Amino acid sequence: MSIEIKLSRPNRIYFPAEPLRGKIIVKSPSSISHYGIRLILDGSVTRQVRGGSAGAIEAFYGAAKPIRIMNKIVEIKPSGKIGSGTTEIPFSVNLRQQGDDRFYETFHGANISIQYLVTVDVVRGYLYKSLSSTMELIIESDKANLPEPPVPPEMVIFYITQDTQRHPLLPELRSGGFRVTGKVSSQCSLLDPISGELMVEASAVPINSIDLQLLRVESILVGEKIVTESSLIQTTQIADGDVCRGVTIPIYVILPRLLTCPTVLAGSIFNRVQNLHHHYLQVGAGETASKIRSQNSQTLGLAMETIPLELIRTK
Fold first, then answer.
1. Any idea what DSSP says for residue 296?
2. CA angle at residue 195 from 12 to 151, to 5 degrees?
3. What are phi and psi of 149, to 5 degrees?
4. Global confidence as pTM
5. Other CB atoms closer than 10 Å to residue 25's CB: what's the count?
6. 144 three-class SS
7. Spatial separation of the C-alpha atoms in residues 311 and 15, rounded to whole Å
8. 207: number of CA atoms within 13 Å, CB side?
């Protein structure tokens, strides 16, 4: 005997202003009696509990309670019987209640999670275990309230030299010098890739690798206290090996959907849940840089530049 939820959209993406449609599929070798079939819609902003040592947000707000976004129970069928074999029960439920505009986009962060779950329960009384199944649905902002995409996307010019580095460098890097220039998106739609280009104009030592890292910055404000913590969510290699000097190298990075979202303002406990992102361009020089990076110690052979990135939802 089994029960599952099958939503009308395979990607499970829905907007708050539209109904949630699908069907409940029950497979049973014999007919069963029940005391009602109900659908439970639950949405909340919660602090993500991680294993290992506590981060800054987790240590400071260990007792933070979830923010309830949505909690709705809908009866799909009254008491009755379900026949043997496969039974499909269709449903259609409005997500947004009248006068409720507090919907945030689905997001899975290192410290903060915004999640929406749909659960079906077949209640069978005290003598039998109830049948239950849960599925996550993905909520995105209503298209009617979204701005048009920026044309063209906003870009920022950057350059990486020995003089822009705030950490110690290898003597040959510091004395011989290097210069990497380019441009990259500073504002980007969640549906579009991060784009841009870079050029290695000069480098006294061979280059090992050029990587672009996407950092997620989560902040929580309670009263007058702000705690911020960043975490790495994606690393994309832009170039491998000692690239030719003076050649334009394109930047094209796809954003991970569930690990990124626009800036969110949420609730009375988490007054402000801010989700920012940073490009982190990293240039490793020579074999020494490869050894240092693999040992996860100092960054003497790495040159880097951090660039703020604003993510927006557009039509």
1. T
2. 85
3. -65, 140
4. 0.72
5. 16
6. helix
7. 19
8. 24
CA distances from 37 to 31, 76, 295 (A): 15, 5, 56
Facing residues of 26 across strands?
A: 3, 87
Please give the DSSP secondary-structure letter assigned to residue 162: G
Under DSSP, the state recorded for 219 is E
Q: How far is CA 186 from CA 48, 109, 193, 217, 306, in A?
A: 28, 21, 12, 15, 11
Please provide the DSSP assignment of 17-39 as one string.
TSEEEEEEEEEESS-EEES-EEE
**Amino acid, res. 237:** Q
DSSP letter (8 states) at residue 111: S
Residue 39 structure tokens: 């659908």
DSSP 264: B
Question: What are the DSSP E strand ranges found in the chain?
Answer: 2-7, 13-14, 19-28, 32-34, 37-47, 67-77, 80-82, 85-94, 107-108, 112-122, 131-139, 155-161, 178-185, 187-189, 194-203, 207-222, 225-240, 248-253, 272-285, 302-312
Q: Compute the C-alpha angle 7/8/12, nearest 5°.
A: 60
- Pairwise CA distance, residues 233 & 287, whole Å: 26
What is the tens place of the pLDDT at every residue in 217-260?
777 765 667 777 778 888 888 888 888 999 999 999 988 877 88
pLDDT, one tens digit per residue, over 52-106 is 445 555 555 554 567 788 889 999 999 999 999 999 999 999 987 666 667 888 8
Residue 248 CA to residue 244 CA, distance in Å, equals: 9
Cα(23)–Cα(5) distance, integer angstroms: 6
Structure tokens at 246: 């003076």
| DSSP 8-state secondary structure symbol assigned to residue 145 | G
| Cβ atoms of 14 and 21 closer than 8 Å | no
